[in-house]
Amino acid sequence: MSTRRLKVVLDKDTTYDIRVGNRLLTNLGVHLREATDATKAVLITDSNVGPLYLEKARAGLSKAGFEVFDLVVSAGEESKDIAVAAELWDALAMLGIGRDGMIVGLGGGVVGDLAGFVASTYMRGIECALVPTSLLAMVDASIGGKTAVNLSSGKNLVGTFKQPIYVAADLETLRTLPAAEWENGFAEVAKSALLDGTDFYQWLIDNTGALLAHDEAAAQQAIVQSLTFKARVVAHDVKEKGERECLNYGHTFAHALEAASKYRIPHGRAVAEGMRFAARLATEAADSPETFGEAQDVLIDALGLKPVAETFSADELYEWMFADKKVRNSELRFVFVSAPGKWETVAVDPDLVKIYLILWEQARM
Amino acid sequence: MSTRRLKVVLDKDTTYDIRVGNRLLTNLGVHLREATDATKAVLITDSNVGPLYLEKARAGLSKAGFEVFDLVVSAGEESKDIAVAAELWDALAMLGIGRDGMIVGLGGGVVGDLAGFVASTYMRGIECALVPTSLLAMVDASIGGKTAVNLSSGKNLVGTFKQPIYVAADLETLRTLPAAEWENGFAEVAKSALLDGTDFYQWLIDNTGALLAHDEAAAQQAIVQSLTFKARVVAHDVKEKGERECLNYGHTFAHALEAASKYRIPHGRAVAEGMRFAARLATEAADSPETFGEAQDVLIDALGLKPVAETFSADELYEWMFADKKVRNSELRFVFVSAPGKWETVAVDPDLVKIYLILWEQARM
């Protein structure tokens, strides 16, 4: 399989390459040499990914002449915390890392968010490269420049915008990806295809089987198409003020569902459910045809993303939506899709949302 | 006295006003209305400044229609800490501040650095205005966009670049400024004049008496000239990669002196001593004439910045220079001035630095 290379161009000073293919860990140092003058590379990874891929990444960086260090955090969302960021800052200082140093985030979304945040704030910002090792991180977290840690009062409340200097999506790392993690990635791919338009959407319909079988060529194509779409959106709206809003498709409901379930429901499953919910609501709150929601269900089902079986009361979900709103302080806004590639954001009457939440709850009784 | 207004232009998307004059706290809301669409203003101040100026700032903001909140931290460098930043982030979330919110840092350098850091990282960045209340903060911390908190392993190791949307230097706040704080400001003004050139330098020589008497018109002029100089430097070099290096004049030695004294020696006194040291070293390490160092001594003396009387061993200072270097990982670089407005950066042979440290130590025996 040949490696694909995408060039992300955000402005004249901010461009970087993303490679999607094989042997990218082995060649990590060679490719980073083209992107940076840094001489020291600090790998940040977690206790799941470290044992699998840290040595290969270290070797790839050393071979190209980098002085390599590594910092391993506990696997899991709990590491996306300011106390862990503080430990990493201290460790960087102890290692004597200066502006000649670069961070390399090796792992899934948590590692990418944390490594990016630490890189963007250590000494007012040092360079950061990302090596996403989950499908979701490859298609989502590795692009857009959003970094974050959680507060007890809410997820992702602290963070920065930090563009990486290079992203390497090595498909080999997907071979060890748990099934639940594939689902998270598929939901993001489906969302991208629905927002992007007919070509990607049709391709995805034709390739759900290959993706479910974890076919590497299909995964590569899904990643490249998702990244191409997202790079275009982000380039138009680096600081998240307009077009980028479309990426929240399914997320208004998904955030409430995740919070109500105390994050037991995985993000991908929640987003898939959120897209289903938005399509229903859009038939009344916007001009979406019912046939679109049905077609979307077929696609989501075909990717193995089953409807959420657990139920939560409409009241509880409604409250979570407003809890989320409180800190975001936007209106209760939804992204609606009426056909592949056609989307709009709509401020919806809370009473109407409540009715659809009740319908959602009743369908589960 | 009329208020002076400077326009800082960093790039086409980043411009902001600085006002230097009277009644700026009272008019804070009116002026901020021109700069922002935010509806909520969160004043961050400390336990020294709060009792003096918080009510006036609150009133000025309320009158202009802002919903006003305030968060007060303990006065002192100890508040420039990640634990304090975390408390502020949590407080912002609890107050329901979203992207409709703005931070207003009311205080000296510590408050400005902390408020700027919190603003730049809360929800990936909300707007920040600064109301510096010390001479040093007016001429230094309010421009350049550098924010920071300290780590146990070093000062200012965590931070961001964050440009304010507005800066109000209300001269009235200087009436309560302690003498030691005036000294800190004078050192920064002297540094700016020496780097800027003949006009500012000559003006400063002619006005040391007025400044020592805390004459408001003289203070205003000193602030405006320092800001004009610094705005020019920063505009050429927003991310601190070249020209901005000149602002480190006196700082290589000053940082070692501050660290060796466990920060008992105030920053201004340390920088003044650092400029004296650099001028001596420059007669051998560069082409600076001895007469420049002597003229500089006269100016620094006239501003009441006495030579540091305490002594520290050359060995200890040397080690601190390298401790600083270790994390910065630059060479042992000095900014040298050979005449007002003429400066260069030079990597100096550590052995030569050592000799001048020994001379410095011996002069104190």
Describe the overall structure:
2 copies of one chain form a homodimer. The first copy, chain A, folds into 2 domains: 4-176, 3-Layer(aba) Sandwich (Rossmann fold), CATH 3.40.50; 179-362, Dehydroquinate synthase-like, alpha domain. The first copy, chain A, has helices at residues 28-33, 49-63, 82-94, 109-121, 135-141, 179-196, 198-212, 216-236, 251-260, 267-285, 290-302, 314-328, 350-363; strands at 4-11, 14-21, 40-46, 67-73, 101-107, 127-132, 149-151, 154-158, 166-170, 333-339, 342-347. The first copy, chain A, has a 7-stranded mixed sheet, with helices on both faces. The longest helix of chain A has 21 residues, at 216-236. Chain A contains 13 helices and 11 strands. Chain A is α/β, with parallel strands linked by helices and 365 residues long.
Task: Compile the SSE list and pairings.
Two copies of one chain form a homodimer.
Chain A: E1 4-11, E2 14-21, H1 28-33, E3 40-46, H2 49-63, E4 67-73, H3 82-94, E5 101-107, H4 109-121, E6 127-132, H5 135-141, E7 149-151, E8 154-158, E9 166-170, H6 179-196, H7 198-212, H8 216-236, H9 251-260, H10 267-285, H11 290-302, H12 314-328, E10 333-339, E11 342-347, H13 350-363
Parallel strand pairs in A: 2-9, 3-4, 3-5, 5-6, 6-9
Antiparallel strand pairs in A: 1-2, 7-8, 10-11
